[in-house]
Amino acid sequence: MVNLEKLLGQLQNPTAMDEITLARVKETRELEPRRRCFADHSGIQAAKQNGTKSFSVKFKETILPIYEAMTGFQLKHSIQFWNYWHRIGDDDELAKIQDWESSQGSRVFLRDCLSLSIALGINFVDNQSHQHTELGELEHQAKQQQNKEAIKSLAKRCAETINELPFYKGADFIAAVPPRPGKEFDLPSWVAKLVSVVTGKPDITSNFSFGNTKASVKEVALEEKWAAWEAADLKVNGIDLAGKKVILIDDKYQSGTTIQFVGMVLQKFGASEVYGLSLVKTLRDTDNQ
Q1: Which of 36, 60, 136, 272 could form a Cys-Cys staple with 123, CB 3.0–4.6 A?
Q2: What is the DSSP secondary-structure string of 210-235?
Q3: Per the structure, how many domains does the chain have?
């Protein structure tokens, strides 16, 4: 049966976050499509018969709240075509939607269990040549070479995204996906520090702690990654997150397992909404497979 109270709550708050669980993460992982970049694929469509135009997307996660808030147009669900759409009334509406798509640039709208989830762009041009995109090259230089200018550039783009996008702009805190203790250099932590200075939002990364040894999960198989994080016993200390909204920063989004696990921890410690912000999205959606 439909939970009417829950449905009404979601209508009032389109970024309301259901409980994040491993089961839900696995379910979402099987859905297609899982991402959308409007620079590569416009949502504007023309009807074949009468030429009327509409805006249409295949999933609502992340896209619907931001699109509706920035354009003022409401998306309705079509059960027949299983999409979210609205008819474009005139040339002015068309121009407004075209401007919105253009303003998103290379941003990738992601479909996962967080309230919202965005990547600044894709890391590779293709999976054959392994040629980096502009953002991919910045992420590579920042992470592998600790290039200060690349780190600053990525932080600037994160801050611009936060200041431009609804919901992100109103967040209370910023946090990076926490590195294992003793790690010499951690890109998300550095970006979070710089973004905190620019946006004025407190960086709470240092409030994370591990109850057990946090091993590297870089080479861990996808199905083992969640368990590895659970074994580390991640906690949030010294801060009241009840009802707060947190921007969670990571460097690279593959399957999204890591950022969703940390989002779940923030949720358990009281955060009402978690907005994911990844520096790059990989072309593939799986980790170490």
Answers
A1: 136
A2: ESS-----TTS-HHHHHHHHHHT-EE
A3: 2
For 179-193, the pLDDT digits (tens) are 988 899 999 999 999
Residue 111: exposed, middle, or buried by beta-carbon count in 10 A (0-12, 13-18, 19+)?
A: buried
- Put the strands of the sheet holding 273-281 in their side by side order: 35-36, 108-110, 116-119, 273-281, 245-253, 173-176
Question: Is residue 60, in this structure, part of any structural domain at all?
Answer: yes
Please report the pLDDT score of residue 8 as a whole number. Answer: 42
Among residues 262, 253, 141, the alpha carbon closest in space to that of 190 is found at 141
Residue ranges of alpha helices (H) inside 47-144 are: 63-71, 91-104, 134-144
How far is residue 273 from each of residues 64, 116, 170, 269, measured CA to CA in Å?
16, 8, 11, 11
Residues 100, 131 within the same domain: no
Give residue 283's pLDDT.
Answer: 86
What range defines the domain where residue 96 resides? 38-105
Asked if residue 14 is part of any domain, the answer here is no
221 and 146 fall within a common domain = yes
Query: What phi and psi, each to the nearest 5 degrees, are found at residue 175?
Result: -145, 150
| Cα-based distances in Å from 246 to 207, 271, 282 | 13, 7, 23
Which residues lie below 8 Å from residue 87, measured CB to CB, with a gap of 6+? 52, 53, 54
* Confidence tier at 241 by pLDDT (50, 70, 90): very high
Token couple for 162:
């936060």
pTM above 0.85, yes or no: yes
Confirm whether 32 is domain-assigned: no
Task: Measure the CA–CA gap between 269 and 267, rounded to whole angstroms.
Answer: 5
At 22, which helix (H) or strand (E)?
helix 22-29
